[in-house]
Amino acid sequence: MMVAPLYPGGLLEIQRANLRALLRHLHRELGSWILVAHKVGFRRAVVLGFCDGTNPGNMALARSIARAVGLTVEDALAGKAPPRKAPALMLVASPRRKGGAS
Known about the structure:
Blueprint: H1 13-30, H2 33-40, H3 44-52, H4 59-69, H5 73-78
Helix pairs in contact: 1-4, 2-3
Organism: Polyangium fumosum
Protein name: XRE family transcriptional regulator
């Protein structure tokens, strides 16, 4: 059973923690907070403020984070892991035979 937030559009602390984990995942994947901010569609200061707890966040930020990692907002708030990317496929040339007809 989920407890309602204290104000409209608010997030519970567990939901904030889940969203912060998703932001850290994006940071590991993309390599910089600027790229994370671009992907999420919010300013870097807002993203970093949410990560360090100085910005409480809201549902608009939650929706943007969920969209950026490929989850529904309900799954993102519930702490589901983002879908895994398929490993990059490399084209491998067929081995060349030595001698004989090809």
